[in-house]
Specification:
The chain has 2 domains: about 110 residues, no CATH class; about 280 residues, Rossmann fold (3-Layer(aba) Sandwich). Helices cover about 30% and strands about 25% of the residues. It contains 11 helices and 13 strands. The chain has a 5-stranded mixed beta barrel. Strands 2-1-3-4 form a 4-stranded mixed β-sheet. Helix 4 packs across helix 6 and helix 8 packs across helix 11. The longest helix has 25 residues. It is globular and about 55 Å long.
Length: about 425
């Protein structure tokens, strides 16, 4: 017996300023509808679509009702995510209006019902959500109009590591909720603030908290800040995270310099570079074989000796899983056999986009727990324990990152007056 499909009734109206359009549904439904039924002037048509989930796959259904009328109007009612911004859908709306005017002599209106939050991730994975170059540029311009800082380095703070931003001087701070285009960070240990300031003479921007796929954000939204930083003139991305150790030689409290990664969601087809390529940021097929800068890794190893923390620091391979659950024993064993030293639920999407943009990347994982690889092991990881290790080692991580940033070479000849153009 087939499972009963889950449906959303489209009765409530959502303000256009609070919604975005699922492009793949709109184009297909309207094109088929106009082609099959021959819409023309003198007809009024109400059309609504629905999305439902069967066995984890997206399907669509539609119902329509033709009513003779002197008006020439098509109403489209679609499932939309109410926490996205309308401006990103303006090109779609314009395209549809032009299509309808040319094919059916009709104007276009939109109404919508919200998608339940629990289903937004599924929809975003299968939709063709697009963020235009203008969207990134508008956010960059908004930030540059409100801070005098022109950052050269961006730092993303992982769980429990937000104190890195406290070391910045002459700070300008913005909540993610007030920045155009930024999603919200909902995870404990992520403050949700963007902080600009100086770090030993370097102009930096620090994210106190990142965005995760498991929160329901699309990978485009998860990596949205990276391209904004690129337009602001950032040349180097520093990423930190909390990770579980799969390697026998890495223990809670140790620090792993990331030399490479395995992108588990990416191997399964979830990549922030999916969709049309923006040549203004980078090439269609960027290489990832050297995304963690070798020079910065060598510099960091030298710094650890001078800070007398070399015994805590090693290089290793990081793997990203989707989360939010921690790994099963079978999954942990598989990752270990693949050569993974530490595993987490973040970082890789930002690194992929930064590499695509031509940034150099330096990454650190703070080892917060040992991943359980034995059925006889009674240990069980929890997020509170992750945050506690982060608090205990935050000062050490802060010292290491500060020294690396202060000693890295920066191209000061970049033209920052046109960075957000």
């Amino acid at each position: 017996m087939e499972p009963k499909p889950k449906r959303w009734l489209h009765e409530n109206i959502v303000s256009p300023s609070d919604v975005w359009i699922l492009e793949f549904l709109v184009l297909k439904v309207l094109k088929d509808f106009i082609k099959d039924r021959g819409l023309h002037g003198g007809q009024r048509c109400s059309l609504w679509t629905e999305v439902f989930v069967v066995d984890g796959g997206l399907h669509q259904g539609q119902r329509e009702e033709k009513v003779a009328s002197e008006s020439q109007h098509v109403f489209v009612v679609m499932p939309l995510a109410a926490d996205h911004e309308w401006r990103s859908s303006e090109p779609i709306r314009s395209l549809l209006e032009d299509y309808l005017r040319g094919s059916a002599g009709a104007s276009l209106s939109f109404s919508a019902s919200p998608v339940p939050p629990s289903e937004r991730l599924l929809l975003s994975m299968h939709s063709k959500e697009q963020i235009s170059h203008d969207d990134y540029q508008k956010t960059a311009e908004w930030l540059m109009s409100r801070t005098k800082h022109r950052p050269q380095v961006s730092i993303i703070c992982g769980s429990g590591l937000g104190r890195l931003a406290d070391s910045l001087s002459c700070r300008d701070q913005f909540s993610y909720s007030e920045i155009p285009g930024f999603p919200q960070s909902t995870v404990q240990g992520h403050a949700g603030c963007l902080v600009f300031g100086e770090l030993k003479g370097r102009s930096c921007v620090c994210m106190q908290g990142r965005f995760h796929m498991y929160e329901g954000h699309s990978l485009l939204k998860t990596t949205f800040p990276i391209r904004v930083f690129k337009l602001m003139g950032v040349q180097t991305l520093v990423v930190t995270n909390a990770a579980g150790s799969l390697a026998d030689h890495l223990h809670p409290g140790d620090i792993m310099i990331i030399k490479d990664h395995i992108n588990i969601p990416g191997l399964a087809g979830l990549n922030p570079l999916h969709g049309p390529n923006d040549d203004k940021f980078g090439p269609r097929f960027p290489a990832m074989s050297s995304c963690y800068d070798r020079g910065l890794r060598s510099l960091a190893l030298e710094v650890t000796k001078q800070l007398d923390i070399a015994g805590l620091v090693q290089e290793g391979v990081y793997a990203m899983v989707g989360g939010p659950n921690f790994e099963t024993i079978a999954e942990a064993r598989m990752l270990h056999r693949l050569g993974v030293d530490a595993v987490g639920m973040s970082t890789v999407p930002e690194v992929v986009v930064a590499t695509h943009c031509g940034m150099q990347v330096f990454g650190l994982s703070l080892i917060t727990n040992k991943v359980v690889k034995s059925y006889e092991d009674s240990d069980c990881v929890n997020h509170d324990g992750v945050l506690e290790v982060g608090r205990l080692r935050s000062e050490t991580v802060q010292q290491l990152v500060t020294e690396v940033i202060s000693r890295m070479e920066i191209n000061n000849n970049i033209d920052r007056t046109s960075s957000a153009v």
